[in-house]
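Sharing a chain and its predicted structure for anyone who wants a worked example. Both blocks are below, sequence first, tokens second.
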Amino acid sequence: MLDLAKRREIRIVFALIGVLLGIGGFFALASVPTTLVTQQLLAVFLLGAMTAGYLISRRLPKHHPIEPWLKLTVILTSAFLGWHYLYWRATETLPLSFGLVSMIARLLLFLVEVYGFITLMFGHFINISPNERRPVPLPADTRLWPTVDIFIPTYNEDILVIRPTVIAATQMRYAPGKFKVWILDDGGTVQKCTDPNPEKAAAAQARQADLKALAAAFGAGYLTREKNLHAKAGNLNSALGFTDGDLVAILDCDHIPADDFLLNTAGAFLVEEKLFLLQTPHNFISADPVEKNLNIYGKIPSENELFYRVMQPGLDFWHTSFFCGSAAVLRRSVLNELGGIAGQTITEDAETTLDALSLGYTTAYLNIPMVMVDPLVKTIMH
């Protein structure tokens, strides 16, 4: 008689063989040539099936057992159609005649389509099991709570834009003395306040005075620096040298946090030792100019919904969610190990994420809107 371990190994081997045979059969079936009538019938059938599936999913309660099967059906259908199309392109539409230039153009277009198909499959793979993370409760003993520095970087935004964010950040519910809000003023640097142009220098000095007064009025700190080097990343890295909290929360100056933002985010860093980042959604509360002009706000999901509601939870399953520059909490010790936020690129948030992942750290995504963003204000200011 075979022991339990041996039987388990045999079952695993047979399961792998079955999976490989299933994949081979799937792609073999997708490679079968079809007539135009068959293609038309298949298109009608799939359109009807997808419509029915969508209507059914809209009526299902959340976490219904059929939900994963609907998702798997969509993924397999997409893979089937994509491979069927590429097989047809490769076997029926790539004659290598009509001259060298024509041949190169055809091959380049085909390679672009292959790249698109591979990207699509990676997207399906990444999003096959989105992680629905819940907040980790903080310990009852507030002495165990991590200390947090909240950075609000600003450059040329009006003080009326910055003020609500500062007020909301300073009023967040957290252990007294365990967090500090900092206004990072890149519009009042020494470089700007001593500008050769007297009008520009006077404007920078007035801005500095206004932001210092705002910080003092609500118990926040004020930081600036010598020169405007490396834009926002440089501003954040400069502030790291003057602060010492265990965690760093970053809020763009027009990103207004809910009062439970820290309560819902800080706890994860106590239970996940390798966690570098906890990102939360950017919650856009009004229509952007395109949505307003087309009157589609609230009727059609905006582009950011795909990233924040679908892709980020999918990435969280693999512990690889991306830092989005704001509405996020980061572990300072990892930032120190990295040498700060990446400052040699305009996508400092994405590069910082990749740098941390390359060192073996993980990231997470908490899909709870806790930071309100007004895209109209951002458009006007920038």
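Comments welcome. The longest helix spans residues 4-30.
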